[in-house]
Amino acid sequence: MQELPNAVPAPGPRGSSDALLRLIADSVPALMAYYDLPGLRCQFANQGYAAYNGHTTESIIGLTVQEAIGDKAWEAIQPHVERSSRREHVKYAREQTLPNGEARMIEVNLIPHFDADSQQLGSFVLITDITERWRAERTVRQSEERMRKFTEATDEAIVFHRDGIITDGNEALTRLTGYALTEVVGLSIFNFISPEWRAVALDYTRSGREDPYEVTIRHKDGHAIPVEVVGKTMPLHHADYRIVVVRDITARKQAQEREAFIALHDSLTQLPNRHFLMEQLSQVLSLARRRHGRCAALFLNLDHFKTVNDSLGHHAGDQLLCNVAERLRQGVRDADVVARLGGDEFVVVLTDVASPEDAAVVADKLLAAMHGVFTIDKLPLTISPSIGIALYPEHGHSADQLLRCADAAMHHAKESGRGNRQFYDPSMDASALDVLRHERLLREAIATDAFELHYQPQVRLSDGALQGLEALVRWRHPERGLVGPDEFITFSESRGLITPIGRWVMREACRQLKQWQDQGLAMVPVAVNLSAIEFRQRDVAAEIATVLRETGLAPHYLEIELTESVLMHQTGQVLDTLNALKALGVSISIDDFGTGYSSLAYLKRYPIDKLKIDRSFVADTPGNADDVAIVTAIIQMARSLLLKTVAEGVETAEQVGLLTGLGCDLIQGFVVSEPMDASRASDWLRK
User: Fold this and answer.
1) Which of 121, 134, 162, 330 has the fewest CB neighbours in a 10 Å radius?
2) Is residue 488 domain-shared with residue 596, that is, in the same domain?
3) Judging by beta carbons within 10 Å of its beta carbon (0-12, 13-18, 19+), is residue 649 exposed, middle or buried?
4) What CATH number is associated with residue 422?
5) Of the candidates 206, 229, 253, which is a domain's last residue?
6) Residue among 532, 525, 508, 514 nearest 644 (CA)
């Protein structure tokens, strides 16, 4: 505020002009007063000033500044008053707290008053309440401070621009682009966008869009950075400006690319997977069709790969698969396709072959490469593939058809001794279709419980007393009638169907024996065969406990028959399961004893109750001296280990006499009874 001119007179006697001055002074929103020198006594105050300090316009007259405003306020403003008394125009702001606790901000002007000779007569006081402006400015400062903190704390670059010209940016912008802020201010924001994206960015900005979109920007060193950009228009009085938030999405893009790669490739070998193979094979066939050319599909399966996993572990198996994949890649051209379907199955697509001989040459080359030694965990391994070859257009016109033919040819190579390659021939379809049909019928049998159990008695040699029954499963084939287990059990194991069949057999055998016992019949155990696959893949003990509980059969009336192959895997899991079965009260016997390849040490390691001498050793006794020697050794060994022996397949009185003399405990076979269905077995038990 400007100083009052020296011509302004000091307040004088009241008159009409004084009344007008009073009216004006009391009407303005500012607080006004006049203090003389040297006493600094109040000579004039408007109503606002007097009331603000707790006085009336009359009572404040003659009071000193200190008396008028109070000691505390005087202490705060005394330095300013002294400056004003020394002819200085003083302007300052001061915060005040009202009695109600409200904070207010006032702006104070102390304006010196001079006479015509430039002698200071006093000072005018002009106080203006600037609380609203003060609050607004404080809000702006706080907003700016928050914005500064946000822009410094975030990893997202923030750019301010007007009409595309950069006006400001945060530190994250310099980290993202490599440019100092001084290097970018004043330049067009579009200069930093990759050329192929500039049109998109220009259209986005001109249309005032505020949704996120993706572009690529250039770092100072030249490399491209994928970013997500969101712009927002901030209105001003004369010219709007834009705030742009730029987020580095390099990691997101890499993750998306990785996800896309994983969706189309095998995670272990990094080769194309089945889905990607079918896409590529379809493209190869389409190109060959247009060019009237040829291509070939080679289906490879590693021979005896399971042995590697079983003996060395899956880690070694995975390493071998990766090495095989690399040899396959090296054995074909860059234009050819190598894919892994899963497990130990691979496919090679030869994109351009002149003749079948060309495909054969490549297959032979791959066979030779696979026959070389692989080193897995410092251990040398050799492995061979079986390869099936299918040609376009001779064997198929679609990707599915060509692959199916190559698969059939590969299986023919397996049947032809493994480690060789075979071209597809239409005659191969018959066997493949037979397998599929056999599997379909077996699945239908499982769904409809199209099985039945036959029971063969086991009797004690010493007195002919019944000691047990063996449950033998049969399949009611829709075309061939009742078929034995030899025709479907091994096949069921290979197709993953043995588990539901085994569960049905276990439950039905326990149910039937309990029914006979309730009728006063067959107070002896029933023996149920359990395959190696069932034993390893299921929680056998828990399932058997459930079956016994639900059927009501006492555990000591159930006997589990295992083959020696189960005990070949001398693991803690095998021992734990056998101990759990024994804890239930179930007995355990070894079926087909003597035909396996495992160490006999398991006989003392595992809780076994009984050995069943395989029928192949009994069939030619007593005429075959070698078989007699084997049977004798088995019986003597079992006796020394306190195990019972059961001879299977006993058909003649001579065999009965021999086994009795050797001390065999039990026999079963046609000399006692053939296997009988439940109805005939019930009659046999009654007799």
Assistant:
1) 330
2) yes
3) middle
4) 3.30.70.270
5) 253
6) 525
The answer on 214 and 286 residing in a single domain is no
Segment among 99-113, 502-516, 540-554, 673-687 with least mean pLDDT: 99-113
| Closest listed residue to residue 504, CA positions, set 458, 447, 559, 558 | 447
Phi first, then psi: what are they for 293, rounded to 5°?
-105, -170
Bridge partner residues of 454 (DSSP): 472, 677
Which one of 223, 253, 283 terminates a domain? 253
* Contact yes or no for 298/365 (Cβ under 8 A): no
Is it the case that residue 600 has pLDDT exceeding 50?
A: yes
Q: What is the mean pLDDT of the chain?
A: 87
411 and 465 fall within a common domain: no
Encode pLDDT of 414-471 as tens digits.
Answer: 888 889 999 998 877 656 667 778 888 999 999 999 999 999 999 999 999 999 999 9
Indicate the length of the chain as a whole number. Answer: 687
Lookup: tokens for 599: 């160490």
DSSP assignment, residue 599? Answer: -
Residue 149 lies in a domain: no
Q: Is residue 440 part of a domain?
A: no
Q: Assess whether pLDDT exceeds 70 at residue 5.
A: no
494 and 563 within one domain: yes
Burial (CB < 10 A; 0-12, 13-18, 19+), residue 406, is buried
Instruction: Look up the domain containing 376 and give its range.
Output: 269-426
d(Cα 588, Cα 535) in Å, to the nearest integer?
A: 13
* Cis preceding linkage at 99, omega within 30: no
Q: Looking at the structure, do residues 363 and 336 belong to the same domain, yes or no?
A: yes
Q: What is this structure's pTM?
A: 0.46
Lowest mean pLDDT among 230-244, 467-481, 619-633, 665-679: 230-244
Same domain, 299 and 381: yes
Q: Is the same domain home to 407 and 501?
A: no
3-state helix, strand, coil in the chain (%, to 5): 45, 25, 30
pLDDT of residue 253: 87
The Cα–Cα gap between 107 and 93 comes to: 4
Instruction: Look up residue 162 and give its amino acid.
Output: R
Q: List own/partner pairs for 202-206 with CB under 8 A and 24 or more apart.
A: 204/229, 204/231, 205/164, 205/231, 205/242
Residue 471 lies in a domain: yes
In the structure encoding, which two tokens stand for residue 429, read together? Answer: 């379809």
Query: Which tens digit of pLDDT belongs to each residue from 503-543?
Result: 999 999 999 999 999 999 989 999 999 988 788 767 889 99
- Is pLDDT larger for residue 210 or for residue 240? 210
Query: 275 and 248, same structural domain?
Result: no
pLDDT for 602:
74
Residue 23 has pLDDT above 90, yes or no: no
